[in-house]
Each structure stands twice: as C-alpha cells, then as structure tokens.
Amino acid sequence: MRYLRTALFYLMLLVSTVVMGLCAIGIVLLTRRSDWAHLCGRIWGNLNLWAAGVRVDVMGLERLKPYRPAVYAANHQSWFDIFTILGKLPVQFRWLAKEELFRIPLFGHAMRMIGYIPIDRADRKKAFESLEEASRRVREGTSIVIFPEGTRSRDGVIQPFKKGGIILAIKSGQPIVPVGLSGSHAILPKGGWLVRPGRIRMTIGDPIETAGFTMEDRDEVIFLVREAIRKYLTVREGGVLEAESTDTEVRSAAS
C-alpha cells in the first residue's frame, strides 16, 4: 500500500507541476497579476498533500495579520513543508528559495514569474543582493517565507539558523512570524523516497517585532525566533538550544 501511495504522489507531483506551472505562467502573462498566479501554488500544494495522504492541522490562524507584510520563518524537515505552507498558509507571500530550484524546467520559470526570489548560497555577493531585494519587497508590502536553517534537517531535529534570513527581516523593519512544522520528517525524510501518509501540525506563532533591532542584535533575534518555533515542536524535534547544551556540559563537568 505504501508503494502505491508513493507512486500516486510522484505521479501527482509530475502532473500538477506541469499543469499548475503552465497555469501560473499563463496567468502572469495574460493578467500581470502574480497574486492570482500564487493561487496556482496553493492548489499545487494541496493536490500533493492529498495524493500523499497527508492531513494538516493548522493552529494559530487568529494570530495572522494577512494585510501586514511580514517575514514568515519556519523550520524545515521535509519537502512536505513546502506543500504545507503553500497549501495551508492563507496569506499572499513569496518564497526566498535556493537557486537550484529555479533551474528545474517549467517549475523554476513559474517561480520566477510569480516573483519568488532565488538565493545563491555559493556566491556571497549574489546572496547579499538577493537578501537586499527581499528586504526591499517586504518594506514595499510583500510577505516573504524563509527557512532559516537553510536546508532540510536530516534527522528532523531543528538545526542552527543561518543569519541571512534574519538579517533581511531586520533590514525590512517588519515582524518575523514564527511557523512551527511538526511531523513532516516522518512522511518523507531527507534522502528518502518512500512516502508515509500521516499528519502534519503547522502552528503560527505571535509576531516578533524587529523595529528597534540592528545588525548587531541579529544573534538575539535568531535566538528569539528559533525558540518561538521550537516551542511548537515535539521534544525530539526541538532538540536543545546551544545555551542549554553548554549548561548541560557544565553540570556534567561539575558532577
């Protein structure tokens, strides 16, 4: 049964990517409305969740302020985080995504047409330019979604955050909205290919205001955001913070 479910998922992934990608490109070309094209992404995400037999419990919707631009920061366990956020986060947003995704035929072109922003982590100058572009868009009213870990966690445990996404949020002066994603690693872990139907819990946290913070405060902001996400994860997924790890080592050395 799991093999049949996996086959259905990959078939849907292929067909929906082609159909929804073409729809998104066509909508932008005909209407110049990237917000309408974003709806294709929502449909794409929900179709692939359905095909994989994945249900999503969404919590914290009352905390959303969809008409206020923000940087949405989520932990990253699986491909299914992307489907979940696209399908279930009811706000207009654009992705800050690794450049490799934009090289995928049709899919990458659709992403560019909708207005998603590529970031080349191998080129420091280009990465900085992407962050500047993203912070400008947020200031002008466009919400951005980031994965501060930079890539999927191999074991499902939240990893240290990279500074780039947090810097763009501070530069934008707009709030960071923490989004906790729990359960997606069990559905399709990094390096795996067999899909396991299951349930994902997506929890939207209280916005963290960045007004008043400077670049020198970025480590403090990273701590605040990571801790805000971590409290919506299971004990195993949340792991330990660096400060807790240090405290444990100190206690062990003293005993």
UniProtKB/TrEMBL annotation:
Signal peptide residue numbers: none
BP term (GO), one: CDP-diacylglycerol biosynthetic process
Catalytic activity entry: a 1-acyl-sn-glycero-3-phosphate + an acyl-CoA = a 1,2-diacyl-sn-glycero-3-phosphate + CoA
Top EC class, one word: transferase
Keyword Plastid part of the UniProt annotation: no
Entry-linked InterPro entries: AGP_acyltrans, Plipid/glycerol_acylTrfase
One cellular component term from this protein's GO annotations in UniProt: membrane
Documented EC number(s): 2.3.1.51
Pathway(s) served: Lipid metabolism; Phospholipid metabolism; CDP-diacylglycerol biosynthesis; CDP-diacylglycerol from sn-glycerol 3-phosphate: step 2/3
Protein keywords: Acyltransferase, Lipid biosynthesis, Lipid metabolism, Membrane, Phospholipid biosynthesis, Phospholipid metabolism, Transferase, Transmembrane, Transmembrane helix
Transmembrane segments: 7-30
Pfam families: Acyltransferase
SMART domains xref list: PlsC
Residue ranges of domain Phospholipid/glycerol acyltransferase in the record: 70-184
GO molecular function, one term: 1-acylglycerol-3-phosphate O-acyltransferase activity
Protein family according to the UniProt entry: Belongs to the 1-acyl-sn-glycerol-3-phosphate acyltransferase family.
Domain comment quoted from the record: The HXXXXD motif is essential for acyltransferase activity and may constitute the binding site for the phosphate moiety of the glycerol-3-phosphate.
Name of protein: 1-acyl-sn-glycerol-3-phosphate acyltransferase
Organism of provenance: Desulfacinum infernum DSM 9756
